[in-house]
Design brief:
With 283 residues, the protein is of the alpha/beta class. α6 links the parallel β5 and β6. The chain has a 7-stranded mixed beta sheet. A two-stranded antiparallel sheet has the order 1-8. It is elongated. 41% of the residues lie in helices and 17% in strands. The chain folds into 2 domains: 201 residues, Rossmann fold; 68 residues, Orthogonal Bundle (Helicase, Ruva Protein, domain 3). The protein contains 12 helices and 9 strands. It starts with a helix and ends with a helix.
């Protein structure tokens, strides 16, 4: 059966009305679904998380190769259809359905990979949650996701570019990524307004000067002024907090060229600034 007709039939059976405003767009290509699993190099040793599982077509492909799949779905009717479609795999323990909001539920700690086509309207906070909760796990190795094309350009931005800011700086604290392929919007139902991109992301294991919370606080105020010079931004902040602000600014200048623009800062330089500011009790 044509996958679109099958989805429409199931939606009719369960009284499901797909809402594009909630990111309910289902991928119509089984070839691309299988591609996602292949790109993640899934084996029986993997425990995979599928976020925004929908009717379970991607979950099903993952479960054929993985040891276990956790699938998160927030919509009650879609979750019932998911259980109906995949009742055998659920009964065997191959699939565990988690009903709830992916932004609120705690992700399982035994996950080794994420393979997901998540709703685009929650993607920024979701990516940060994935980075925070999963990328630092000892056995976590990869995330393969289909994301909005324009969002990927921003997420993978490099220092010095116009897109460089808090989001890509947060991403590069934890990970590296690669674009695998572009996916036109015609491959989804209902058809979204934007094209999509399949990406592969993996953890970068390194010793950090500061924890992510401290790093994130630094990016919050630094990237409020992306085109201003580092000296100017830091001077304004330090003068408000310290009587001996010049000493702290001098210390930072020993490690970083403070005549550069904020948008030119690298992850390592942001960490150095955060480290010094934390030691000065500003962060």
């Amino acid at each position: 059966m044509n996958l679109r007709f099958e989805i429409e039939h199931i939606c009719s059976l369960f009284g499901i009305f797909l809402d594009p405003d909630k990111g309910q767009h289902f991928l119509l290509s089984k070839r691309i679904l299988r591609k996602e699993v292949n790109v993640a190099n899934v084996t029986k040793n993997d425990i995979v998380l599928d976020i925004g599982a929908g009717l379970g077509y991607l979950t099903e492909e993952i479960a054929k190769r993985a040891g276990k799949v956790y699938a998160i779905e927030i919509d009650d009717k879609i979750a019932k259809a998911f259980e109906w479609r995949l009742k055998d795999m659920i009964g065997e323990g191959k699939i565990v359905l988690i009903k709830g909001d992916a932004l609120k539920v705690q992700f399982p700690k035994d996950v080794t990979a994420v393979i997901s086509n998540p709703p685009y309207h929650i993607i920024s906070p979701l990516i940060i949650k994935i980075l925070r909760e999963l990328f630092s796990l000892k056995n976590f190795r990869v995330a393969v996701m289909i994301l909005q094309q324009e969002y990927v350009r921003k997420l993978f931005a490099k220092p010095g570019s116009k897109q460089w800011g808090r989001l890509p700086a947060a991403f590069r604290y934890f990970a590296k990524g690669k674009i695998i392929m572009q996916i036109p919007k015609k491959y989804f139902f209902p058809q979204p307004d934007v094209n999509s991109t399949l990406v592969r992301m993996w953890p970068v294991k390194m010793d950090h000067l500061v924890d992510f919370n401290t790093y994130e606080k630094a990016t919050m105020f630094l990237f409020s002024f992306p085109n201003r010079k580092i000296r100017s931004v830091l001077k304004n902040i330090l003068k408000q907090k310290l009587s001996e602000w010049r000493n702290t600014l001098t210390e930072i200048s020993k490690h970083i060229n403070i005549e550069k623009r904020i948008r030119q800062l690298t992850v390592e330089e942001i960490e150095r600034i955060a480290y010094i500011l934390k030691n000065s009790t500003i962060l």
